[in-house]
Structure formats: structure tokens, C-alpha cells
Amino acid sequence: MLHVTEADVKRLLPFSKAIELVREAYVRLARGEAVNPPRVLLSVPGGASMFFMPGHVYGQGSVAVKVARVNAANPKVSLPTVLLTIYAYDAITGVQVAEVEGEWLTAVRTAASTAVATDILAGKSVKVMGVFGTGREATTHIPMLRLVRDFDKILVYSRDKGRRELFAEKMSRDHGIPVVAADSPRRVARESDVMVTVTTSDTPVFDGRLVKPRSHVNAIGSATPEAREVDNELVKKSTVVVDSRKQALETYGDIIRPIREGAIRESEILELGEILNRKMKVVHRASDVTLFKSGGLAVLDAMITDYVLGKLVPQERAKGARA
Amino acid sequence: MLHVTEADVKRLLPFSKAIELVREAYVRLARGEAVNPPRVLLSVPGGASMFFMPGHVYGQGSVAVKVARVNAANPKVSLPTVLLTIYAYDAITGVQVAEVEGEWLTAVRTAASTAVATDILAGKSVKVMGVFGTGREATTHIPMLRLVRDFDKILVYSRDKGRRELFAEKMSRDHGIPVVAADSPRRVARESDVMVTVTTSDTPVFDGRLVKPRSHVNAIGSATPEAREVDNELVKKSTVVVDSRKQALETYGDIIRPIREGAIRESEILELGEILNRKMKVVHRASDVTLFKSGGLAVLDAMITDYVLGKLVPQERAKGARA
User: Fold this and answer.
1) Which residues pair with A242 in a beta bridge?
2) Residue B317: which pLDDT band, with cuts at 50, 70 and 90?
3) For residue B289, how far is the Cα from the chain centroid?
């Protein structure tokens, strides 16, 4: 059995390839050529919440299940809030073939998914990207979205002033683009053409009324039934697209609560895979905003894990042959 | 992280302890002190079917998920039909603590579950045990059921004459009790006071009309929506008890089909944990048979895994201290 490390994933998975794989996973799922059963949640009172996320793309050599463990108190004992492991099995025999460290893979596939959505939903001539959050996923989103759009500037906001300034400085340096720490969420909401919220917030992170017409918002952080990253004002004026309608209606507060509160009807929600599959153009009124809400699909992990294993297995074989 | 082998499990888990743990798991689940979310199934067309089974008993140190992979064609490539791995995580932080080889543990917990059911549902003075099947689970059921009842004789039937004779011979020798290979299912059904079906059959393995009044049947093999081990005749004259009502109504052909065919009503089905928890006595008419149908609960795996890890971790620590 292979043990696949974060370093292996970094080495074997270029960002552009991740975008291609994620787009294909959405299309295959929309065509019924992949399976993404509802994730299972198990919560330990006073302890970790765990998600079990199996997925498979028909015809691929492996089935993957991602096991996510989340405990906001983990940093107190020097552990990450979220721990992610992906187990891969031979699709025919079921023999376990690999255990994959899942944190980097997830941050990449999530940003790739946002890039796929942004590519199809955002206008072509955008100038400013706005980012809420400074965690690992914020780090992957900045270079990833630049693969689908040219930005002049990136605005970053998070509640901790020191952290957002450090993050902006590092991102500017790493990616050779002006990244500015904004003093308020208001500034980011007003000036951005494309926004990404990658937070663990329970309440909306900006005022939806401030968002410019024809801009595009990706809300891809908190995805539990009571948590929200965006408000009803934004949802009301948006064409809403989700990664999975079923998962959205069961688990995303950003979808469940606006429906419950009458800000949007269930029938108005579109699914990204359907749009990609039918090569639909999302036509919206001039004043409209597009909103992509995503909590992450197991089938994306399965698609990417299978790709990484495919790159790794011949190398392992070659090593064996030389030994 | 610990890698727990079959040999570790054999060494650390006495059969009598397994019965005690399984009984406690059923009671804790019935009291709402454990979680056993619905198992997730993922089927690969032309390949393996995989079940993901998370479970946890509140207050225990670990959460376990069993991943079962089943492919009836595996023996053609010298692999077992069923592959079972249990992953255990720290209940508070979510850190993975162990990977456990699950085949023996499952065979023991399944037999222990049957023993718990038999202990509470079968008459006290029984003489003959009948077993359908000669696989690993048949092997654990014979010594396990002898811990809750005294039998004079055991009858065994499986379709392959050579295999059932070998199995009977080996079991007689290993356990010092007459184990007889029966020439027909009819003989087993007619003569047994307690029966166990541990088969992968899709169709009933004996004629329910032949079963003696007041006998007890454990149907614990096939548990998919279309498969049956017992017929409507048996179900009609039985008090029916299941390991989980929810799981039974969703996945056990032996429950779903008799309901659909009018042989029994959903409301008549009892749950083992409720009986154990309320210390209910299952009162039945003189002519009645009791039937226990079980497909296996993740919470039993979680309970036993936690016990095995508890036995192992101090040993590992002691080893570390000596090193």
C-alpha cells in the first residue's frame, strides 16, 4: 500500500491539471457517470465532528473515501482544526491501494472547483479579486483564480489586522501581483469583481447590498445548516449555482436559510455540473450577481486521488524495477 | 498510529468478552448513548461494492469506521470475497490512532451478536443447533453460541457435500461436540432448536414450515434488499427481532420483502436493543418461533475496536518504556 504525502501531492498535481480534472468530475457526475453518495456525519459530543465522503468516477481504477475530522479546539493542543485523510481502494477487488494525506489535495481541489465556477460564471473583463479569509484555502485560491482570469489587484480581509497584513505581503511576494489588506469588509465588497469567501464564519461576512452589479461571488467556506457566509440581500439579487443541489439543500446554511426565509426558491437553484454538461450560458439581468456556493464533493477528491495515484504507481514500479 | 493485526484481535478479544461488549453496545444505542449513522453504499459497476460504516459509543476514546469491500469474483484472483478494514480516530481531536484488520473482529462480533439474541430469545432447554454455511462466520458461531446454551449436537448443511463434511469433522475435533454434516436442509430445519443461517444465498435456505414450534432462528448472512435467507412461512409464524429497525427496513430483504408481500407488518418488528434495555421478556404464543435478523451494526465494531485498542495501547506504552 502506498502512503502518499502532502509533498507527493504538491509535486504531482499542477494547478492547471486540477482545474481540468475538477471540470471533468462535475461533467461526469452530471452525466451519471460517477457516484457521490451523501456524506455521512458523525459528531462526538464535546469532541470531533467527522465526515465520511466516498466517491468514484466510473471506469477509473480506484474508489476514494475522504475522512474529515474537525475540532475547533484542536489548535489549543497544537493540532490543525481540520484533519483530512483519503483512503483509496482498487475499484474491482476492493484491496486498499493507498492512504493519502488530504489537506493540500483538498485545498487545491476546492480552489480548482472555484476556478471552474468562476470561469463559467464571471464576466470576462474583471479587475479586482476580493478574498475573505487567510487560511490554507485562501492561499490556493489566489494563484488558482489567476489561471482563469486576469486581475490587476487582490483585496484581502480577515478580522485579525496583523494576520491579513502578513498574508497580503506574502501573497504579493509569492505571486507578483498587488495584494492589499483591506481595512473593512465594506471595501472588499464594494470594489471586487470576483469575490471568494473562505471562512469558518457563522454569519455573513459582508453586506450584500454593497456588491457591484455583474460581479461574481464564490462562497466556499462554512457549509453547515445554520452557518452563513453571505446574506439574503446578496442571495436575492443573485443567480445561485451550487456544486450539488442535494447536498446544498441538506447541509448548506447559505442555501437552506434563504429558502426558509423566502429570499430564493429551491427551483431557482442551478447545479454547476448541469451548466458545464449542457454548455449552458447563464443568462442574467444586467443588475444580477452570480453566486457559487460549494461545500465540496467527494467525487472531486476521488477524481484527483485517482490521477495522483496514476502518476505515482508507474514511478513506484520503476523504482521497484531498478531495485 | 497502530496497525492492529488479526493475530492481535485473536489474542486480545475472548469470546465471552465479545458477548459482554456487544450486549452493552446494543443497550447504549437503545438509550441514545451511541451513534450508528446509516451505512453508505458505493457500488462500482462490474467491480466491488463498498460499505462505509462509522460508529461511536459516547464517552469512549475512539470513533471507528469500518470499510467493507465485497466482490464475489475475488476468489478467482486469490482474494477473499469480503475485505474489511477498520480505521479508528481519537474521539476528541480526530487524529487517526489505528488501522485494524477487520475480518476476524467482524466474525467474532457477529457471532457475539447472535449469542446475545439467542440468549434472550431462545428457550432454555435446547438440544440441537443447526448451522447453514461453512464460512468464517459459521466457525465463530459454533463456539460462541455454546457460551449461552448447552447443545448435545450440531447439524451443519451447505450445498457442497465435501465442504460440509470437512467442516463438521474439523468443528467436532476443535470443540469436542458431535458436529454432523446433514444430507439436506430439511433435516436441519426439522431437528434444530436453534438455527443460524450464515450464507450468501439470495433465496431461502430451508422450508419454514418444517421449523419446530418454539425454536429460534438467527438469519445473519445475506442482508441486501432483494436477498433472502428465510421464507415468508417462517416469518409469518415468528416473532421478528432485528438489530436495527431503520437499517432492516432500508436494506434487509428478509424484512423488506415479507412486509411488501404482506407476511408481516412493520409495526410487529422488535429491536434487540430495546428488548435488552427494557429487560422485556418476549412473550410468544406456544406455536411461535423467534427470528433474529441482523446485517451488522457499525456501533458493535466501534465498541469492540475501542476495547481492543484499550488493551493494546498500555502494552505499546510498556514496550516504549522498556525500550
Assistant:
1) A271, A293
2) low
3) 19
- Tell me whether A87 touches chain B (CB under 8 Å): yes
pLDDT at position A102 over 50:
yes
CA distance A27 to A188: 32
Distance from CA of B197 to the nearest CA of A (A): 26
Tell if the CB–CB gap between A92 and B38 is shorter than 8 Å.
Answer: no
- Between B54, B71, B91, which is nearest A94 by CB? B71
Q: How far apart are CA B168 and CA B159, in angstroms?
A: 13
Whether the pTM exceeds 0.90: the reply is yes
Give percent above pLDDT 70 in chain A: 94
A80 touches chain B (CB under 8 A): no
Interface test with B, best of A39, A50, A51 (most B CBs within 10 A): A50
As given in the structure block, the three cell numbers for residue B255 are: 424484512
| A293 Cα distance to chain centroid | 9
> What backbone phi and psi angles, to 5 degrees, belong to B232?
-65, -30
Q: Is A44 on the interface with B (CB under 8 A)?
A: yes
B74 part of contact set with chain A, CB < 8 Å: yes
Distance, in Å, from the CA atom of A87 to the CA atom of A96, rounded to the nearest integer, reads: 7
Contact indicator for A65, A53 with CB cutoff of 8 Å: yes
- The per-residue pLDDT for range B150-163, each reduced to its tens digit, is 999 999 999 999 99
For the record, the C-alpha cell of B218 comes out as: 438467527
Position A75, amino acid: P
Question: What band does A313 get if pLDDT is binned at 50, 70 and 90?
Answer: confident
B63 contacts: CB under 8 Å, gap ≥ 6: A42, A44, A48, A50, B54, B55, B56, B88, B89, B90, B91, B94, B302
Give, rounded to a whole angstrom, the gap between the first and last alpha carbons of chain A: 18
Question: Which of B136, B137, B132 is CA-nearest to residue B154?
Answer: B132
What is the predicted pLDDT for the residue at B99? 97
Using a CB-CB distance cutoff of 8 angstroms, which residues of chain B are in contact with residue A79? 93, 95
Judged by a CB distance cut-off of 8 A, whether residue B47 touches chain A is yes
On whether the CB atoms of residues B247 and B254 are closer than 8 A, the answer is no
Is A277 touching B (CB cutoff 8 A)?
no
Among A135, A3, A66, A74, residue whose Cα is nearest residue B94: A74
**Burial B21-59, CB ≥16 within 10 A → b, else e:** bbbbbbbbbbeeebbbbebbbbebeebbbbbbbbbbbee
Rounded Cα–Cα distance for residues A201 and A192 (Å): 20
Q: List, in sequence order, every residue forming a beta bridge with B216; answer none if it has no partner.
A: B194, B290
Chain A, chain B: beta-carbon pairs less than 8 Å apart: 119
What is d(CA B11, CA B307) in angstroms, rounded to the nearest whole number?
13
CA distance A172 to A131: 13
SS3 B218: strand
What contacts A203, CB < 8 A, 6 or more positions away?
A: A228
Q: Contact, A159 vs A181, CB < 8 A? A: no
ipTM comes to 0.91
Among residues 119-148 of chain B, which lie with CB inside 8 Å of chain A? none
Measure CA of the first residue to CA of the last residue in chain B; give whole Å. Answer: 18
Scanning the structure block, which residue is given the C-alpha cell 506504552?
B317
> Which residue on chain A is closest to B38 by alpha carbon?
A40
